[in-house]
């Protein structure tokens, strides 16, 4: 009996995948290459993504004084509008 006939008879057991004479299955290959079973560097690299090196903490301190500067500038603008006397210019006889 030819190997192709044997593989064709086993088609319902293999599912919808077309049988291959070599026995190579692309679905099984892709399923096994998604994530390695054991990563020897996983423990050494874990510190990069936890604690003060997490993504949130890395970007939180990019502009450390920005919040204080915004509050100070807003307070100055409010003070200027409410309390400082506006200097009105009269362009008449008394010029400078």
Beta fraction of the residues? under 5%
Compressed to H and E, one letter per element, the order equals HHHHHH
Distance between the termini: 114 Å
- Could you give the count of β-strands? 0
Sheet/helix structural class: mainly alpha
Helix content: 40-55%
Mean pLDDT: 77
Radius of gyration: 37 Å
Count of DSSP H/I helices: 6
Largest sheet: none
Identify low-pLDDT runs: none
Shape verdict: elongated
Protein name: NADH-ubiquinone oxidoreductase B12 subunit
Membrane topology: Single-pass membrane protein
Keywords: Electron transport, Membrane, Mitochondrion, Mitochondrion inner membrane, Respiratory chain, Transmembrane, Transmembrane helix, Transport
Family: Belongs to the complex I NDUFB3 subunit family.
Nutshell version of this structure?
Helix content is 49%, strand content 0%. It is an all-alpha fold and 96 residues long.
């Amino acid at each position: 009996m030819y190997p192709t006939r044997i593989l064709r008879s086993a088609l319902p057991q293999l599912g919808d995948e077309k049988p291959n004479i070599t026995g190579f299955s692309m679905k099984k290959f892709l399923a096994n290459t998604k994530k390695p079973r054991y990563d020897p560097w996983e423990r050494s690299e874990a510190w990069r993504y936890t604690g003060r090196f997490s993504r949130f903490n890395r970007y939180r301190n990019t502009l450390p004084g920005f919040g204080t500067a915004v509050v100070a500038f807003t307070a100055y603008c409010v003070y200027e509008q409410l309390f400082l006397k506006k200097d009105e210019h009269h362009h008449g006889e008394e010029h400078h």
